[in-house]
Amino acid sequence: MTETKFNILVLGGGGREHALCWKIAGSPHCARLFCAPGNGGTAAVAENIHLDEKDHDAVVAFCRENTIALVVIGPEAPLVDGLADTLQAHEIAAFGPGAAAAQLEGSKGFTKDLCAEANIPTAAYGRFTAPEPAHDYLNEQALPIVIKADGLAAGKGVIICDTMDAAHEAIDYIFDGAFGAAGAELVIEEFMTGEEASFFVLCDGRHALPLATAQDHKRVGDADTGPNTGGMGAYSPASIMTPELVAQTMDKIIRPTLDTMAARGTPYRGVLYAGLMLTTEGPKLVEYNCRFGDPEAQVLMMRLESDLIPALMASARGDLSGIDLTWSQDPALTVVMAAQGYPGNYDKGTRILLDAVDESDELVVFHAGTQDASDGAFTAQGGRVLNITARGKTVAQAQAEAYAGCEKIDWPEGFYRKDIGWREIEREMNQGEK
Ligand code: AMP
Ligand code: GLY
Questions:
Q1: Ligand 2 centroid – CA 168 distance (Å)
Q2: Residues of CATH 3.40.50.20 domain(s) within the chain?
């Protein structure tokens, strides 16, 4: 890419978007950077603006008025809602798939059917639009079993059941409207065992460029206990994804997916996030997301050495040839600080002081749900509020740096897991003993 500078708009207000803005703002190709709605952290690297992402005309008008060359759509909802299609139709480059391709996240049944068609390894399943046949199918299945609302449910639509009674209840719960329209249809899935890993590829409709691996910590409590959350911490790379497993994932999961989407006339552009279960039979697909993970994006951005803007532009324009990304060999780890009570009820508006934290190239506090209190403090405005992100020579070192950062944060109403990265640190210790 020539030394041109672009105005860029990032949509979203989480830790993922702060990490993307932080990386984009550091690029020589970035002129003005806007973030809508952004948060207390993005305000330091971008101009936070109010823009209703559901109002496509308003987004187009803003892009026209501000000569936006690229819109980076962070979360899944506007992608499933077709915002990338609208922008591309107005000849504004948008990073992220159109509505038809975003169905890979928007409908679990859609993805399961695609897996069946393209022979992609995943859990056996049944897809239902009414309770009766779902209950009948369930009666023939083994335990444990997984019941999933078909549509977007903010990560809450998956119920893992150890008993038949619980599974029958889960079917009724979903069809009774617990997840609204997202539960008009459901998927019943075989339970898979193994370790999970997140794998990210950048796509241009035909080709996929592997980005990096990561591992998330979904449960709220130490030692992976308690309810599921959006993610309480992550690290990258996940060494359990060996080069051989990456090759298998590309051949058996990613490429057949992209080929099938392209053959159907709905090519996939953007970042494709595969949630994988590493089973004794090889990697199997748990789910697709049509966006970067949160908090996985935070550790990916901390490790990415190349400029992100040319890669995002190339994906949006449909030609990744010539893009080659380099990653730091040093692992990165992020610890999520959340408001006490999360993922249940929690208070908003509590005060956070970050003055004592020494941020550097190796330690960054990404904001997920904060607002600037304009007196040097921030207020907490969400469940997951801060992502203390560090890079180190080992995961153990990155973990120690991240936790040292957490301890300097003055926020009595916040909490965090104390064991982020434990699986990898155990592997590092075993490696050291060999
Ligand atoms: P999802 O929202 O589809 O990623 O599901 C959330 C979590 O539920 C996953 O990260 C897994 O831990 C678990 N899960 C989903 N589907 C299955 C499955 N078929 N077998 C085992 N665990 C699953
Ligand atoms: N970290 C899980 C997600 O972004 O869906």
A1: 27
A2: 7-95
Residues of the chain with CATH 3.30.1490.20: 124-190
What is the position in ligand 2's atom list of the atom closest to the CA of 292? 4
Give phi and psi for 222, each to the nearest 5: -55, 155
Which ligand is closest to the CA of 286, given by its number? 1
Q: How far is the CA of 377 from the centre of ligand 1 (A)?
A: 38
pLDDT digits (tens, 9 = 90+) for 149-202: 999 988 789 999 999 999 999 999 999 999 999 999 999 999 999 999 999 999
Q: HSE-up of 297 (CA within 13 Å, CB side)?
A: 28
What residue's CA is closest to ligand 2, atom 5? 293
User: Which region, left, alpha or beta, applies to residue 194 given φ > 0 means left and ψ of -120 to 50 means alpha?
Assistant: left
Q: Is the dihedral of CA 339, 48, 100, 23 positive or negative?
A: negative
Domain 7-95 in this protein, CATH class: alpha beta
Residue nearest to atom 6 of ligand 1 (CA): 158
Residues forming CATH 3.90.600.10 domain(s) in the chain: 332-433
Burial class, 324, CB count within 10 angstroms (exposed 0-12 / middle 13-18 / buried 19+): exposed
The CA distance from 309 to 258, in Å, is: 23
Task: Give 412-428 pLDDT, tens digit per residue.
Answer: 999 999 999 999 999 99
Q: How far apart are CA 45 and CA 20, in angstroms?
A: 10
Which of 294, 301, 417 is the best mutation target for the ligand 2 pocket, counting ligand atoms within 8 Å of the beta carbon and taking the most?
A: 294
Query: Residue 122 gets which letter from DSSP?
Result: B
**Could you tell me which CATH number the domain at 124-190 has?**
3.30.1490.20
Class (C level, CATH) for 193-317: alpha beta
Residues in contact with ligand 1 (CB, 6 Å cut-off): 123, 146, 155, 158, 189, 191-192, 196, 218, 275, 286-287
Which residues' Cβ are closer than 6 Å to ligand 2? 155, 216, 230-231, 289, 293-294, 296
CA–centroid distance, 195 to ligand 1, in Å, is: 11
User: What's the CATH code, domain 332-433?
Assistant: 3.90.600.10
pLDDT of amino acid 2: 59
Tell whether pTM > 0.85.
yes
User: What spatial distance separates the first Cα and last Cα of the chain, rounded to whole Å?
Assistant: 46
